[in-house]
Amino acid sequence: MPQFTVNPSRFDPYKNFKFRVKWDGRHVAGVTYVSALRRTTEVVEHREGGDASTVRKGPGRTRYDPIVLERGLTHDPEFEQWANKVSSLGSGPGAEASLKDFRKDIIIELYNEAGQLVIAYKVHRCWVSEFQALPDLRSNGSSVAIQSIKLEIEGWERDAEVVEPEERTL
User: Fold this and answer.
1) The whole model's pTM is what?
2) Which residues, in sequence order, are CB contacts of 31 under 8 Å at separation 6+?
3) Exposed e or buried b for every residue in 108-139, given b needs 16+ CB within 10 A?
4) Which run of H or E residues covers position 123?
5) Could you give the maximum distance between any two Cα atoms of the chain, in Å?
């Protein structure tokens, strides 16, 4: 069975360098890194009383690892504005967090080499648990200043509406 049903002559898997992140209905500017989507289901072991040597295993709770997003530091305030919804310095009592809208659903989109959307994942009920506004600064350095957020998530699923596109020839 071919790995690609619409493009059976395609041999190479998709590359990991063409992607976009979307929230609030728009793409977020400048994202250069998205950590892996990973979930782990605990193993629950049990054994029947009359069964002396066999341990049975079943699924337990499923945990979703946080996601880290990074981008070069610019004047776009999206990361900081979202982080401030969880904790904002100087807010008065009762206004330290924006309980109504501190969670967002995001979409992570992967594109093929030709720029066609090939896979997307919907990530549910995300909120910022860690925000890095500035990186370590070095007077003798020559790298880009990176800003990051760590998102706690409550699950993800593949977007079934995104299907394998027919690849074009030039």
Assistant:
1) 0.86
2) 19, 20, 21, 69, 70, 71
3) bbbbbeeeeebbbbbbeebbbeebbeeeeeee
4) strand 117-132
5) 70
57-77 burial: b if 16+ Cβ within 10 Å, else e: eeeeeeebeebebbbebeeee
Report the amino acid identity of residue 92: G
Is residue 140 packed enough to be buried (19+ CB in 10 Å), middle (13-18) or exposed (0-12)?
A: exposed
Please report, to the nearest 10 degrees, the dihedral formed by the alpha carbons of residues 111, 115, 117, 121 taken in order: 30
Which domains, ranges and CATH numbers included, belong to the chain? 19-158 (2.30.110.20)
Taking the C-alpha atoms of residue 34 and residue 19, their distance in angstroms, rounded to an integer, is 9
Separation between Cα atoms, residue 90 and residue 92, nearest integer Å: 6
Instruction: Give Cα 158 to chain centroid, integer Å.
Output: 12
| Amino acid occupying residue 139 | S
Rounded CA-CA distance 111/115 in Å is 5
pLDDT digits (tens, 9 = 90+) for 3-56: 887 887 787 888 899 999 999 999 999 999 999 999 999 999 988 888 778 888
Residue 131 has pLDDT above 60, yes or no: yes
